[in-house]
Amino acid sequence: MAAWWVEAVGLVAGTLGIIAWFPQIREVWVHRRHEGISLPTFGLITVALALWLVYGLLIDSKAILVANIAALVVILVVIIGVVRLRRQ
User: Fold this and answer.
1) Residues 6+ apart with CB under 8 A from 77
2) How far apart, in whole angstroms, are the C-alpha atoms of residue 54 and residue 34?
3) Burial, 33: exposed, middle or buried (Cβ in 10 Å; 0-12, 13-18, 19+)?
4) CA 75, CA 70: separation in Å to the nearest integer?
């Protein structure tokens, strides 16, 4: 297990990474704007996050696990919003 401060740095980095997606969520769900959003790019990001999640499991890093589970949820919220808007 990594030193507590290493995990703390990972948690802070993960939290900031998740917060960075909030403006995108607002654009899609509140302002109902989806132009310029590439679903293939979001799909690739989803695969990358899933692989980071596997990596976190393999090295037993709670910071990586928590950050990537939360990031996957956030990304899926954006993807669902975009798909819904494009079907209208």
Assistant:
1) 25, 29
2) 30
3) middle
4) 9
The sign of the CA dihedral 55, 56, 61, 67 is positive
Q: What is the pLDDT of residues 42-77, one digit of tens each?
A: 999 999 999 999 999 999 999 999 999 999 999 999
Return mean pLDDT, the chain. 94
Chain-centre distance for alpha carbon 68:
6
Put simply, whether the predicted model's pTM sits higher than 0.70 gets the answer: yes
H or E stretch covering 26: helix 22-29
**Domains in the chain, CATH or no CATH each:** 4-87 (1.20.1280.290)
